[in-house]
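Example 3.2
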Amino acid sequence: MSVMWIGPPGRPLVGSQGFPGDKSIAHRAVLLGALAEGTQEIEGLPLGADVRASLAAVAALGARIEHHGDTVHVHGAGAAFGASGPAVVDCGNSGTTMRLLAGMLAGGSRPVTLDGDASLRRRPMERVAAPLRALGATVETTAGRPPLRIAPGRLHAIEWTLPVPSAQVKSAILLAGLRASGETVVHEPLATRDHTERMLGAMGVVVRRQGNTVAVRGGQSPCATRIELPGDPSSAAFFAVAAALVPGSRLVLREVCVNPTRTGFVAILRRMGARVEQGDAREVCGEPRADLEVHGSRLRATAITGDEVPGVIDELPILAVAAACADGETRLTGAAELRTKESDRLEALGQLRGLGVDVTILPDGLVIRGVGDAALRSARLSARGDHRIAMAFAVAALRAPGGIEIEDAAAADVSFPEFFEWLAALGPRVERRP
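Structure, written as tokens:
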């Protein structure tokens, strides 16, 4: 088991930091590139374990992958995607890979089983299986979880209302809709990430969007293009909170994706009193990007409601750390989805108690009574195999004079292999321990 000790920096965090390409957009660039005709050129592709799972999966299903320095070429299989290759495809730990591939393969020509590691096998899959069945595919789960067995059928368009907001399920339905007859329509109860719709548009597919409804007509094929990925805001959020927690800090986060469905964490930090300034945005391949400048700030408690949760689902662990260091009581509700991630993130965040923080775990959220200007206690915490928990606890260590030990810290490699190295470069002490 990897154990990392992180200690406070002893000085403000000052500087400028770029970030790996956005992981959510990267998955879609790889997967849609495999479904396209021609060569998708992807610049700035992050190579964490999740994105590597997507690369390996599409390579097994007929696409050809070439690495050219920081650029990856995906030579698409087009209509032949999934027509050959193994009967079982390993999706690793990546729920995005599994759910989006399920939609892509639902209209294919042969049965395929999608499997993954022990963590992925615990994640719910009926929410994606049900609409794919309605489209005409035969989809079997294992007691509602992976492995996921897909026997393609003749697909027909559906109109589907998501019972739970999910960008992954929405994306799977739209991708299956490309191979269905008629127009497939998805209604969302709350707006979720729209990267799939934006990328389909950038690749020549006509997507109809109105409010929280999105639709695609079958028979369209995406055309390969060149994609320059913006910096991942979910990765940048850890450094934003780190800068906010250390007095005197001034950290510029360069070229971060500022898609409105991804900047909810910025709005919440500002509401908590953090000084976060955004530079001028520019749009590339349908995705806006800009610099964010974050200053050390005294934080105050806030309420995070269910309406906000879909837009900050990946940032909630680090926002919980911000709340732990804020004045007053922060209440998070409507976040039961956190129980179905790589870990039960609500229970995992309960470990903040070991740092001297008063935490109440709710069925769908947390109540966190922050310590304000007081220091956090030293403790040994477990990442529980969850990359975002590992990184969140590392940021909490910046407010613990004696530092924090994190078990299974290598879980950060799933999305951000460089995280601890880049954090150390800004001043915090980072040591590997037996």
